């Protein structure tokens, strides 16, 4: 564990004029604010490791003398420092950062960053000038020098340069690589995907790249700095090294051990105040992002400094790209040095104080740096080294230009692929999110549908209970307009918002045919077996294609069973002016229903009678059968006796003529059996004859009865026809619902007729009636629709008027309250006036009393005076 090294650098004043007000003075290893007289101002004094400063100076002097002393002092040397106006970048580098850079060559991660307000000299410190090279240049030189001094290891250095501009990471070496993403994995730790990395062999190569990056960096002019950095830049060197002699020594462990360290040299953009920078538009936006990310950095430092390096809790590295990229440098596996730059001018006192406080906190942060050794057989170092060698050989050849281009192209391709991969990963993630969202929506929809189904079922149950209670037929008595915002929004299965604005619920379990509301817009899907349905009508317009009764039943089944849920007026509408209109419509409907019900009763009665007649007819037929059997018995006996008896099917006349045409002996049926010699036979014959006569009489009687019954039956059928016809005509003026239900009745009636009358003629009549009925129904629906629209319009108006009325009554109430208040005030005033009058009267009384007392006193005094003068005289 080691602490972050923090140095403070005060840049020279902007003007050479002598300071008139307060000024910052650097003394020993501290910085304090002094007034114009040179006296330090209390509370503005910061001292940074005096003891360490002395030690570091000694260390600097003895730096090259003894390695052990250097080693011992290393930690101490990286202690805090304060650098004054006249300090050079070289001094700072030597004292503050050199150890860190050299440690990076030996496999430690290292980060150096400059922090401070705008125009305090961060860029100057990091980049420097031609006379005073900055930390980056000095570090690059130092790295290459160190590499050269280490003869037993081979190195590979890769360089990248990026900026964080408005919270977007851009590649400064490849400006086309924008909006790069930060990733983390076990192998590479935290890294920026798609960042161009250049393999370098010399400081000059690096400087070229730095220049290229600087040219691409975002800078802009503000009131405080002509060339103000508008982005944070991170110059990164990845140093890989491997033991050269490992293969010769046969040490496979050393051969595969590759040290990989990352050195970040960071030039932060400066915190700024809009009032001072005069930033607006783009500059303001940049400034906002800069301040935000610096605030995140401050928060991270605060968090890290709080726990004393042990219990840190959650550190919000992910709050900004800057802290995320610098995560290893802030409390992680890295050596870190911070250079806090401050401006000496009095006007920047607050900012300077802020920077110094940041420095104090950063000083308390501890890191845990260790040598990063990677064990891999396919080390990148080896591979890339070989590649470099190959490329170098090729470059030396005649086609160097072409090859160079090829390399560039390959590199670009590689980057493109990497970017593509990133993009695809992002798209995949987005798609996943979208899918989740879709699933959620579907779930919601399903829930809604379930809710609506429950509603429909409830409604169905309500209606059933209504039916049970009323003991009525299957027709709903009232139309109710149920408007509920929630339900109106719902457009699930079987439940749609109608053009009337009222919600119409279909009974899904029964409806197989076009939805009811489609009658309004004619969008209903036509049933398969009924292709020639009239537009918008639920009933077939042409019955020519209907082959039989079953098909007709099948076709109409959906319509006949289709019902609307109850529609109820909302309570507030009962009192609306249009409610009477609705109720009148309801009355008309109810009138029709009454008629229909009475007709139905008639029909039922007729059907009952008809059933009775049928029953007696059946009995008659049974008797007929018995009679037939008896006749056949008789025929057999007659045959036996040699008498020819006419067939039982013959009518009465046939039987009579037979009896008349009989032989003389046979004619005297009443006992003249003279022609028979055999007395026994005669008796038997007479018995049979009597029996036969009895049967004949019975037959006559039944036949008569039968014809009567037939007549009665025909009469009843006529009555039935008549009842049904009037029922159908009346239904034509009824509602759709009644119309449909009557179709059902008609079908029942049609069934009854089937056995009695000619079906074709009846169907023609049915067709006509149904056509008429459907037209009438549609007309009525149109009227109902219009009236419902009218009702809804009036309701809206009423609602508006109600709101207006409420507002007026509210205003009226307010006015009344005000009036009351005024009256109360007036009353209060009057009371006050009365009281005042009383008080003044009292005062007047007292004045009078006082006057009287005064007069009394005066009189008393006069008397006394007189007495005194009398006394004196006497
Ligand atoms: N130590 C120094 N010696 C001489 N000049 C300096 C020094 N430090 C800063 N300057 C000058 O001050 C000015 C502002 O410095 P610089 O641009 O480095 O500030 P900065 O902190 O990077 O500002 P910003 O955050 O706006 O980018 C520059 O003109 C620079 O040359």
Automatic annotation (TrEMBL):
Q: Does the keyword Cytoplasm apply?
A: no
| Kinesin motor domain span | 3-365
Entry keywords, A to Z: ATP-binding, Coiled coil, Microtubule, Motor protein, Nucleotide-binding
Q: Name one GO biological process term.
A: regulation of chromosome organization
Residues bound to ATP:
116-123
GO: which molecular function terms? ATP binding; kinetochore binding; microtubule binding; microtubule motor activity
Q: Which terms in the GO cellular component ontology are assigned? A: condensed chromosome, centromeric region; microtubule
Query: Domain of life of the organism in this record?
Result: Eukaryota
- Entry's InterPro entries? Kinesin-like_fam, Kinesin_motor_CS, Kinesin_motor_dom, Kinesin_motor_dom_sf, P-loop_NTPase
Q: Does the keyword Iron-sulfur apply?
A: no
Q: State the coiled-coil residue ranges.
A: 371-446, 589-623
Name the protein family: Belongs to the TRAFAC class myosin-kinesin ATPase superfamily. Kinesin family. KIN-7 subfamily.
* Name of the protein described by the UniProt record: Kinesin-like protein
């Amino acid at each position: 564990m080691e602490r972050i090294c923090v140095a403070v650098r005060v840049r020279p004043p902007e003007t050479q004029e002598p300071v008139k007000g307060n000024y910052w003075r650097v003394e020993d290893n501290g910085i304090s604010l002094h007034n114009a007289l040179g006296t330090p101002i209390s509370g503005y004094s910061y001292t940074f490791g005096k003891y360490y400063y002395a030690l570091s100076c000694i260390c600097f002097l003895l730096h090259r003398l003894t390695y052990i002393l250097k080693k011992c002092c290393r930690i101490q040397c990286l202690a805090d420092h304060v650098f004054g106006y006249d300090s050079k970048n070289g001094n700072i580098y030597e004292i503050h950062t050199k150890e860190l850079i050299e440690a990076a060559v030996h496999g430690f991660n290292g980060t150096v960053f400059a922090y401070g307000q705008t125009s305090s000299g961060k860029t100057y410190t990091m980049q420097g000038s031609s006379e005073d090279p900055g930390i980056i240049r000095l570090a690059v030189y130092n790295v290459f020098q160190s590499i050269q001094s280490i003869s037993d290891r081979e190195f590979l250095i890769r360089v990248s340069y990026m900026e964080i501009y408005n919270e977007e990471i851009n590649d400064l070496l490849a400006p086309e690589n924008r909006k790069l993403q930060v990733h983390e994995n076990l192998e590479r730790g935290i890294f920026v995907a798609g960042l161009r990395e250049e393999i370098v062999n010399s400081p000059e190569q690096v400087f070229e790249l730095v220049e290229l990056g600087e040219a691409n960096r975002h800078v802009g002019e503000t009131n405080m700095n002509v060339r103000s950095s508008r982005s944070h830049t991170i110059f990164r060197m990845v140093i890989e090294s491997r033991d050269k002699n490992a293969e010769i020594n046969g040490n496979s462990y050393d051969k595969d051990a590759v040290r990989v360290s990352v050195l970040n040299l960071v030039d932060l953009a400066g915190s700024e105040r809009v009032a001072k920078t005069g930033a607006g538009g783009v500059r303001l936006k940049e400034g906002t992002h800069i301040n935000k990310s610096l605030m995140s950095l401050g928060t991270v430092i605060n968090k890290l400094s709080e726990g004393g390096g042990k219990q840190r809790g959650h550190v919000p590295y992910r709050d900004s790209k800057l802290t995320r990229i610098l995560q290893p440098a802030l409390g992680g596996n890295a050596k870190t040095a911070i250079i806090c730059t401050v401006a000496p001018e009095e006007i920047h006192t607050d900012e300077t104080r802020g920077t110094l406080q940041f420095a104090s906190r950063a000083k308390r942060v501890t890191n845990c740096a260790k040598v990063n050794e990677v064990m891999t057989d396919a080390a990148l170092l080896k591979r890339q080294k070989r590649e470099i060698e190959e490329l170098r050989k090729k470059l030396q050849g005649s086609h160097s230009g072409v090859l160079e281009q090829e390399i560039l192209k390959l590199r670009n391709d590689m980057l493109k692929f990497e970017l593509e991969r990133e993009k695809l990963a992002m798209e995949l993630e987005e798609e996943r999110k979208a899918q989740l969202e879709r699933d959620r929506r579907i779930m919601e929809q399903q829930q809604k549908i379930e809710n609506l189904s429950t509603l429909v079922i409830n409604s169905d149950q309500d209606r059933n209970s209504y039916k049970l209670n009323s003991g009525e037929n299957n027709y709903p008595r009232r139309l109710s307009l149920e408007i509920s915002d929630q339900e109106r929004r719902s457009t699930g299965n079987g439940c749609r918002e109608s053009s009337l604005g009222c919600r119409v619920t279909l009974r899904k379990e029964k409806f197989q045919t076009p939805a009811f509301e489609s009658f309004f817009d004619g969008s209903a899907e036509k049933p398969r077996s009924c292709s020639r349905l009239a537009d918008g009508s639920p009933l077939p317009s042409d019955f020519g294609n209907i082959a039989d009764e079953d098909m007709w039943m099948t076709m109409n089944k959906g319509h006949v069973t289709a019902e609307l849920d109850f529609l109820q007026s909302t309570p507030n509408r009962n009192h609306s002016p249009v409610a009477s209109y609705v109720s009148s419509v309801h009355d008309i409907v109810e009138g029709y229903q009454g008629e229909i019900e009475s007709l139905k009763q008639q029909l039922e009665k007729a059907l009952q009678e008809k059933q009775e007649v049928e029953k007696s007819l059946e009995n008659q037929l049974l008797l007929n059968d018995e009679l037939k059997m008896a006749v056949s018995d008789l025929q057999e006996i007659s045959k036996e006796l040699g008498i020819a008896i006419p067939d039982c099917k013959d009518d009465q006349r046939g039987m009579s003529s037979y009896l008349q045409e009989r032989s003389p002996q046979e004619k005297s049926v009443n006992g003249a059996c003279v022609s028979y010699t055999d007395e026994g036979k005669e008796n038997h014959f007479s018995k049979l004859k009597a029996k036969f006569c009895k049967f004949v009489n019975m037959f006559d009687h039944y036949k008569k009865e039968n014809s009567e019954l037939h007549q009665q039956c025909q009469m009843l059928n006529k009555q039935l026809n008549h009842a049904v016809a009037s029922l159908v005509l009346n239904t034509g003026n009824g509602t759709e619902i009644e119309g449909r239900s009557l179709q059902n009745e008609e079908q029942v009636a049609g069934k009854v007729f089937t056995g009695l009358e000619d079906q074709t003629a009846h169907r023609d009549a049915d067709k006509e009636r149904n056509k008429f009925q459907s037209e009438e129904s549609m007309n009525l629906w149109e009227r109902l629709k219009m009236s419902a629209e009218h009702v809804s319009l009036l309701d809206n108006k009423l609602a508006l008027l109600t709101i207006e009325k409420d507002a007026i009554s509210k205003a009226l109430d307010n006015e009344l309250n005000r009036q009351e208040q005024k009256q109360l005030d007036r009353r209060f005033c009057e009371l006050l006036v009365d009281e005042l009058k009383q008080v003044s009267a009292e005062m007047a009384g007292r004045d009078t009393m006082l006057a009287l007392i005064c007069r009394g006193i005066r009189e008393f005094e006069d008397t006394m005076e007189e007495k005194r003068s009398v006394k004196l005289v006497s």
